[in-house]
Amino acid sequence: MEKKEILIDSINVKEALRYLGYNNNDIDPNMKELLSHCESDLLSAARPDYIYSVFKLNNDYTLEGCDFELAGHDIKKHLEGCEKAVFMCVTAGMGTDRLIRIKQIGNMAEATVIDSMASAMVEQICDEVEEFIQDDFPDMEMTWRFGLGYGDFPLELQKKFLEVLQAPKRIGVCVNDSMMLTPTKSVTCIIGLKNKENSLDEVTGKVHNSGNHGNDKRSNENRCEYCNMKDVCEYRVRGDRCNGN
Amino acid sequence: MEIRELLKSDYIILDGAMGTMLQGKGMEMGTIPETLNITKPEWIVDIHSSYIAAGSMVVYANTFGANRYKMADSGYSVKELIGAAIANAKKACEGTDCKVALDLGPIGQLLEPTGSLTFDEAYDMFKEEILAAEGADLIVIETMTDLLETKAAVLAAKENSDLPVFCTMTFERNMRTFTGCSVPSMVLTIGGLGVDAIGVNCSLGPDELIDVVAKITEWTDIPVMVKPNAGLPDPVTNLYDVSPEEFAQSMRKMAELGVHVFGGCCGTNPDYIREVAKMLDEARRDGLFEERKVEVPLAVCSSTNTVVVDRPQIIGERINPTGKKRFKEALINNDIDYILSQAIEQIDGGANILDVNVGLPEIDERDMMIRTIKALQGIVDTPLQIDSTKPEVLEAALRVYNGKPIVNSVNGEEEVLDRILPLVKKYGAAVIGLALDENGIPDSAEGRVEIAKRILDKALSYGIRKENVIIDCLTLTVSAEQKAAKETLKAMSIIRDELGLKNVLGVSNISFGLPNRELVNKTFLTMALTMGLDLPIINPNVSSMVWAVRTYNVLADIDKNAMEFIEESSKVEIQKEVVKSESKSVSAPLNKDIKSLEKLDDRGLSILRAMETGMKNDGSRLTKEYLEDTDAMVIINDMLIPALDVVGEKFEKNIIFLPQLILAADVAKVCFEEIKTYMANKGGDTESKGKIILATVKGDIHDIGKNIVKVILENYGYDVIDLGRDVDCQLVVDEAIKHNVKLVGLSALMTTTLCSMEETIRLLRENNVDCKVMVGGAVLTPDYAMSIGADYYAKDAKESADIAKIVLG
């Protein structure tokens, strides 16, 4: 079976504007023009790509056939009750970084807009890949995306995580010595898969409420609890959330 | 038989996958495969042996990732792992003719500008691996996606060993690597470095790679190699979908294209190699293997863009300080952004290649050249022409250039040729030969052709390919020597017709001392094109010159159906429309309760309107207009700064947002640029409000925030010394002392890089640097900023300007 292609033909502009501090403010015609211009530049420069691997999760939180330690308390809590763990990495590609770099020379305003749009785009790519995964496992329920560096799940595992996925070779995503992903518009995360019965139990409260697929609000609130920025987050001050940006 | 001998035979069979075989033996994901050389040597020997039994004539030692970076957590040294790997491969080869290759894969970190690894660091890591590979018969560089990293590996191999070098990169369906490197760019660049075989591995299955391989064979007569995957992997099961028989059938198509070296990558096993060996044996009996003859045209490239000189291609001459005060000033002040803006302007104007000359007595030309080349190739994909008389400058540039450049230039002097041509050969560049020597420029066309011949012969004797020699028959000023123009033109036609070489010519000199220079230049350019000029060196910002070339291309039947001519013409129409619409007034954001508005007079309000609507042309036009009767400092202090204050106040009150704040600053930048140019021409200096250092700290490569701050600060009249990103802590200290800077701004995006920020501040304090420090970045808080010793926390770009006002006034 061939790898499914990511098709993104428009950017979630609303999300990008939110990153820029807009809060349902009016968009003047100049800004509209700028946005549509930036969107088309980004869509032609970006090359969305992804890779994921699915591992069976043992009771002791080791992974079958994979030498990777799920270190810390929080990732284990996140995967509680799951049968499988999906390792996932997505990127908007090097062309995106390059476009932002180019724009910074002559047009910083566009660079800023495109930077935010690219962040929104990475989220869109993640959402699409989640759908692919759901298609692979139609009978299973998915948890939300738990990123490396969330809570006490060490960011330092980034290098090994990418190696497990062969991400440098397969999609060109690497990490630098400070654990920043390159291209910069990339994301790594782990998603848990659990049998649907488990989630039925969850409703009755028998199993811990770790998986919330299909309930965006709840899952994202959950996400904020693990965030190291939660006490100073400007989005939260506004009663908003960043969605991982 | 030695490898280089083997390459003369019909074909060479390599091995198949190592990783796939190791997984078959039970290796878990996440295990570092190279450690198995020591912990499971019997597995490795067994895998090699099974490939040799299947027909492999070369096996790749299990060293793909055995570099310092990837092996950091393996518990073993590079030397131990590579030593063990070669020993294992040698053991398997005992009693056979099979050769052992040191296998070099990518380092696993991205090079600048996307990543932070430097060319030199990459080179050192490859060198370490090569020096550890005692006993190997050849060096294979494979699965590469970054052309510059590949170049670092090839240079490390060639400079630290005499072994043959094979090199393959990994292409995707769009015929490019992840970094955008194209097939011709790879072949021109890596082939030019003198590898023994070149090709493609991994990527896709053999059928999907046919087009890539066909393209490679079009561009080189170096033996071509291919090592495809066993089809495409299933994303869930990771299994590949092409059988050994199908694989071999597809590989026969490769043989028909002229491929010489065959193997398999991910998903293949000895069965695939056995089938390939069978197929090749049949192909030999069918008489498939003939010597390949390829004619390669003159072409230069960046990693993503190849320019073939099969039609006139414009070389932009503007990156050159000669006679340009503003450019000199930029060089002295290390203002790379100005140089980049010059590049972008020329490309927009129609340049196909950019000449790069940064020679100035006041600066370190070598250092500046390296920085300029690195900055340019991070931004533009136009191939570069490296312009210097100094061999050390040329070599430094040739090393870090990510592509195949032109060297500008040599001349007929023996000593110059012997100094520069070996560099041209080593780095696979093209070279311009000026038709002059120690006796000056010959008057006659024949005299110049004579020198051109000498240059060509010498180049050939150094192994430079003929197509890479370009001749400059030299333009003399027609007002001083009227007959000379005819001689230049005549010489060019002889170079084209008799020597079969390409012509390059700097055109603008012709009109020196005459009125109506543009017309003289344009007419001479057109005459020269008809006489065989291939590479006019001109100012592409003068549109009549660019249009002369485009028109020539139509009239000379080069631009078929005038497609390009028509397309470019329509672009001009669109631009005119844009200019028109810019002059229309667009409603600016509301002005409620903005105190700073009171300070603006009518002129200031016009500038404010340009800023608020982001109209750079208006800003520039207004500034020019005001400069005619108003002192520059008055414009800055009474119009630009107060207008920026209005915009800043609106930003604070959430009337406008970040992109609009920056748009306004961009307009202000254009206004300041007008003033700077005006002052530079007048010989005066704009008064600086003070110097500020900005840096994104060590380890941090996300610098857009810092760059936004830079735009804002510059447009308040501060001189910003931008140290860039991933900046060494000590460098900030050194620069602060050197420039006597009173305000340092540091940015960090991630928690992992905050420690570098803290360290930088600590060093500044420890060295008693008399400066204030402001910090900013997504993960910072005011409390944290104070706890690491910063003086100010800036929550956004606007606030950084407020802080600058407090500190510097």
Brief digest:
Chain A is an alpha+beta fold and 245 residues long.
Architecture overview:
The complex is a heterodimer of chains A (245) and B (809). Chain A has 245 residues and is α+β, with helices and mostly antiparallel strands. In chain A, 47% of the residues are buried. In chain A, β5 and β6 (181-182) form a beta hairpin. Chain A has helices at 13-19, 29-45, 74-79, 94-106, 108-136, 158-165, 167-170, 196-204, 216-225, 234-237; strands at 49-56, 84-91, 140-142, 146-147, 174-175, 181-182, 186-195. The longest helix of chain A is centred in the middle third of the chain and has 29 residues, at 108-136. Chain B is α/β, with parallel strands linked by helices. Chain B has four domains: 3-285, Homocysteine-binding-like domain (TIM Barrel, Alpha-Beta Barrel), CATH 3.20.20.330; 299-546, Alpha-Beta Barrel (TIM Barrel); 595-682, Methionine synthase domain (Methyltransferase, Methionine Synthase (B12-binding Domains), Chain A, domain 1); 691-808, Rossmann fold, CATH 3.40.50. Chain B is built from 30 helices and 24 strands. Chain B has an eight-stranded parallel sheet with strand order 1-8-7-6-5-4-3-2. In chain B, strands 11-12-13-15-16-17-18-19 form an eight-stranded parallel beta barrel, surrounded by seven helices. A five-stranded parallel sheet of chain B has the order 21-20-22-23-24, with helices on both faces. At the A-B interface, α2, β1, α4, α5 and α6 of A face α13, α25 and α26 of B.
Tally of DSSP helical segments of chain B: 30
The whole-number mean of residue pLDDT values of chain B reads 92
Question: Major sheet of chain A, described briefly?
Answer: 5 strands, antiparallel
CATH architecture of the largest domain in chain B: Alpha-Beta Barrel
What are the key terms here?
heterodimer; A: 245 residues; alpha+beta; NADH Oxidase; five-stranded antiparallel beta sheet; 7 strands; B: 809 residues; alpha/beta; TIM Barrel; Methyltransferase, Methionine Synthase (B12-binding Domains), Chain A, domain 1; 4 domains; eight-stranded parallel beta sheet; 30 helices; globular
